[in-house]
Write a structure and sequence with these properties.
This protein has 233 residues and is α/β, with parallel strands linked by helices. It contains 7 helices and 15 strands. The longest helix has 15 residues.
Length: 233
């Protein structure tokens, strides 16, 4: 996923970039002014923009957002908690509005919701069945039979009980066709079927599947994974 940051404070921009990289967003362009943000769109097409409202003391973030809001989803960030700023910002129709200092996980969720809202997926008639195309052949894959899905180059490989299927969709697109609580992302390169998981080692950042195979968990995705379970302490 491509992300455009519009933030005039270098420390804030660096912190934001660090958070994005932690969650697997590595294709990021950083700009610090209204003009620079516009210029970046000539050669960079983001999937989402993260915009500071006040740039060099002026509400240029709102100006930029108003100009792109019909073609790009965006999230506002600001340290201004006054009603006037909020009322001005809401007129640009942001996907989310976060006050600094924000929680990194809040930002992650705001990005995911913004992108999903911008590109809604129509649910299939049978929510438990996928058809995977291989040449002229369509193979039926029941979601219950999927063990996990991993990145393979620009595509995704679905590992099922009946075999493996390579699909020409990146993981970020494929995950939208799956129920999120049953198929959480555990790594930038991996989605797992929670019904296949028998043990999770949070300290070692790995989980174990029914067949004994282990998969790595990124620290940034542990909270998402645990939401799918009742955790008794």
């Amino acid at each position: 996923m491509k992300v455009l940051i519009v933030e005039d404070q270098p420390d804030e921009a660096a912190y934001l970039l660090q958070i994005l990289q932690q969650y697997g967003y590595t294709d990021v362009t950083v700009t610090a002014s209204l003009q620079a943000a516009h210029d970046s769109l000539i050669t960079f097409t983001p999937d989402i923009c993260i915009i500071d409202i006040y740039l060099n003391g002026k509400p240029d973030g709102i100006v930029f957002a108003t100009q792109i809001n019909k073609r790009l989803p965006f999230v506002f960030l600001t340290s201004h908690d006054d009603t006037t700023t909020f009322q001005l910002a809401r007129m640009a129709i942001p996907c989310s509005y976060l006050l600094k200092p924000y929680n990194p996980l809040e930002l992650k969720y705001a990005i995911e919701l913004a992108v999903e809202k911008a590109t809604p997926v129509q649910p299939p008639l049978n929510n438990n069945i996928l058809f995977v195309k291989n040449g002229n052949i369509l193979s039926q894959v029941a979601m219950d039979t999927i063990r996990y899905i991993e990145v393979e180059g620009k595509y995704s490989r679905i590992i099922c009980h009946q075999g493996k299927f390579l699909v020409q969709l990146p993981l970020k697109e494929l995950i939208r066709h799956l129920p999120p609580l049953l198929f959480p992302r555990i790594h930038r390169n991996t989605i797992v079927n929670i019904r296949e998981v028998v043990r999770i080692n949070i300290y070692e950042q790995e989980l174990f599947l029914k067949d004994g195979q282990t998969l790595a968990i990124s620290r940034g995705y542990i909270d998402d994974l645990l939401v799918a379970y009742k955790v008794l302490k």
